[in-house]
Amino acid sequence: MNVRQNMISLSILALLTVSFAQPSFAATTPFTDLAQSGAKDKILSLQQQGVIKGVDDSKFAPNETITAAQGIQLIVNAFDLSLAAIRFIKAPQATDFFSKADNNAWYAESLIIAGANGLELPADLDPNADWTKEQFIHQLMRVMETKGNLPMIKLVPMEIQDDQELTVDYQGSIQRALARDVIELDKEKKLHPQKPITREEAAEMIYNALAYLKNHKPLN
């Protein structure tokens, strides 16, 4: 296949990616397993917008943890990341960005989009490993701030009782997430950063991040 054919194939791939990434507003059946969830309204709102999906048509499984691949897919979908504005010499594969990825796995497209859009993910990322709260928060904030072209903010660091558990490289992202009301600490002012993040927690953070962007105009 020559370069021209490659470019045509990639243009088609980009169009398909955009169509899959855009929210669907078709009628949906509300998840039935959110009665005990404090984030029920936010999760249902994201469901109606087509931003998130359940484990099946009626179940969201709010207490299940998510893997790195699932977290990346959530962020890619929530912020409409795609390959539309990116050109390649050859068709990209997930392993071009992440050595441990499977090019035939369900997550391959999301990892390609994430890698091509410059998400700060390690090259040796394990797509099947559980993601911690701090890992998800860090990536969410990076994409949110880039997508929204948000200004730098002067922070008065909030006290976090378990800050000794934080990874140093994630501290800034977490403080900004607190300042922008994307996350909140528990009653004991703890974050539990090393705890695997649940689907409910991830969905609520995404809702809060999108709400923040909606209410704050990007810089020109």
TrEMBL record:
The keyword Transferase does not apply. Pfam families: SLH (PF00395). Residues 26-89, 157-220 form the SLH domain. Residues 1-26 form the signal peptide. PROSITE patterns: SLH. InterPro entries: SLH_dom (IPR001119). Transmembrane segments: none annotated. It comes from the Bacteria. Keywords: Signal. The keyword RNA-binding does not apply. This is S-layer protein.
